[in-house]
Design goal:
Elements lengths: L2 H22 L4 H65 L3 H23 L2 E3 L12 E8 L8 E6 L2 E3 L2 E4 L1 E7 L3 H7 L4
Parallel strand pairs: 2-6
Antiparallel strand pairs: 1-4, 3-6, 4-5
Amino acid sequence: MADDPIENQSTTSDSAPSEVLEEQSGPSPLEEAQAEAARLKDQLLRTAADFDNFRKRSRREIADAERKGRDTLLKELLPVFDNLERATALGSVADGGDVRGILDGIELVSRQFRDTLQRLGVERIKTVGEVFDPAYHEAIQHLETNDVPPGNVAHEVQSGYREGERVIRPALVVVAKPVSAAAATESEPSA
């Protein structure tokens, strides 16, 4: 029996160093596989997020390019519309059957163009009688008058257009200002 404790002691001392070696050898293959899976999952989620951001940015850039293309087209078409309106205004002053037929044709084209702009979501900017707004109006002249309140638009030289709140082309306008004292005394009849 005395031999037994010594054998037990030697067996115990032999097993202790092997346990220490197993603990020092590092993570088990299962732990390594789990860590690798977590790393790959994180990488996959980041790649998916990057792709989603790319897709959103691409859609936004396409929409911006379409809007810019439409703006370019509209800027080219608007002078044609302006000339149609001028021809309509001049034709209504003239007399004669031939002129009336031409005027009716021009009015038809003008109406069709207005309807097309409306379908595209393009609106004419309100001007005459409105308070001057530099976001929508471009003042090209001031006019001394008592007919329109000062700071309001007295006359429209060229129509402006917008799509929603975005201005495609500002309206060229004449803005009213108060009649000066010198001009007011000149216009009064002398007694």
